Amino acid sequence: MIARFRENIEDHPFLYRHLHWEAGTVGQVLYLESEARGVRGTGMGCFFDDVTHLILGFNDNAFQDIYHFSVGRHVEDRRLTTLPPYYHLKKGKLKTMTEKDFEHRGKGTFSYDGSQPA
């Protein structure tokens, strides 16, 4: 997302944070709309903005690139560990995760009871 930067910030410095809040709000709408349409989205707030500005031909700070967002089909990466929410809690008791809990890396995900899917 590109914002009119210098014009806003020079006259009203407090708008700096508002530009980022607005970008985040647009990002939240993109997340919701992506999911509603059966695709995935992800926001990126950390990037090499100087390189991006160079590629876009921005020579000053009249405009700033403040947020990136991508939308598309997801690809499952089995090298990553995906656990369900509150996995560390088991039937209301705190479950301490051990080295053994992480031995499944690359083999899919755990179910709530700690077993692997077939």
Biggest sheet features: 2 strands, antiparallel
What is the helix/strand order?
Answer: EHHEHEEEE
What overall geometry do the principal axes of the alpha carbons give?
elongated
Q: What is the radius of gyration computed over CA atoms, rounded to a whole number of angstroms?
A: 21 Å
In what range is the share of β-strand residues? 15-25%
Write down the domain tally.
Answer: 2
- Helix run count: 3
Low-confidence residue ranges? 108-112
Q: Mean pLDDT, rounded to whole units?
A: 80
Description:
The radius of gyration is 21 Å and the shape is elongated. With 118 residues, the chain is an alpha+beta fold. It folds into 2 domains: 2-72, no CATH class; 76-113, no CATH class. It has a two-stranded antiparallel ribbon with strand order 1-3. A two-stranded antiparallel ribbon has the order 2-4. Strands 5-6 form a two-stranded antiparallel sheet. It contains 3 helices and 6 strands; from the N terminus they run βααβαββββ. A hairpin with a 2-residue loop joins strand 5 (89-90) and strand 6.
In short:
By secondary structure, the protein is an alpha+beta fold.
State the main characteristics.
2 domains; alpha+beta; single chain; 118 residues; two-stranded antiparallel ribbon; 17% strand
